[in-house]
Design goal:
The protein is 25% helix and 19% strand. The protein is an alpha+beta fold. It has one domain: Gcn5-related N-acetyltransferase (GNAT) (Aminopeptidase), CATH 3.40.630.30. The protein starts with 6 loop residues before the first strand and ends in a 33-residue tail after the last helix.
């Protein structure tokens, strides 16, 4: 998820995306276009490539056991299908010779409450590039096409998530003008702490 490799993080009503800029390293790229929701299953190989990279860099993320590629795709397909119920959600795909070699999946949420990010903010849920097409600038082309689409919709800001272990992805987005904003913590729902670990009121975060 190359410096990009495959990066995790649309839709039925999406207007025509900006055409891909041809790259000297990828002369056969046909276009970057909106994905028809009926083509959703065609994303599976690209998602599995992302899943494989996740397993390479974080086989036990936050202590969790990994899913199989098949189970991972079933879970992701269900999320994609639900997100596509929002008519604003869109997916842009890069196509070469009839094959999909990359895609970007974009959803929308309410803007942040404490900071003025606009009434709505876009969220790049997935940016994945086929292994055979990495290192050719395709990730940058897809990201540029997403930004053009969002600008045409009047959306000023986009949020992107990246695994803490995926330093290459973080640097990729930073080169494209994105800044660190949030940190997501994951833990068990149990209330008992290990023996010898005390938790005082002084340790409570401000505002909680």
């Amino acid at each position: 998820m190359t410096s990009l490799q495959s990066i995790e993080f649309g839709g039925p009503q999406a207007s025509e995306a900006a055409p891909a800029q041809r790259d000297a390293g990828d002369p056969e790229l046909d276009s970057i276009r909106p994905l028809d929701p009926r083509e959703l299953a065609r994303l599976e190989p690209l998602w599995v490539a992302l899943h494989d990279y996740h397993m390479l860099i974080s086989p036990r993320l936050a202590g969790f056991h990994p899913r199989s590629p098949e189970e991972s795709w079933r879970h992701r397909w269900a999320r994609y299908a639900r997100w596509l119920e929002d008519p604003d959600t869109f997916v842009l795909v890069a196509e070469r010779g009839g094959d999909l070699v990359g895609y970007a999946f974009v959803t929308f949420g309410m803007g942040w409450s404490s900071w003025n990010s606009g009434e709505r903010i876009a969220e790049l849920q997935t940016l994945s590039i086929a292994p055979s097409s990495r290192g050719q600038g395709l990730g940058s082309q897809l990201l540029a096409a997403v930004r053009d689409k969002l600008a045409s919709m009047g959306i000023k800001y986009m949020a992107i998530g990246a695994l803490v272990s995926n330093i290459d992805a973080q640097r990729f987005y930073e080169r494209h003008g994105f800044n660190e904003a949030e940190l997501v913590l994951v833990g068990p729902t149990m209330t008992d702490f290990p023996s010898g670990v005390a938790r005082s009121s002084a340790e409570e975060p401000y505002g909680l």
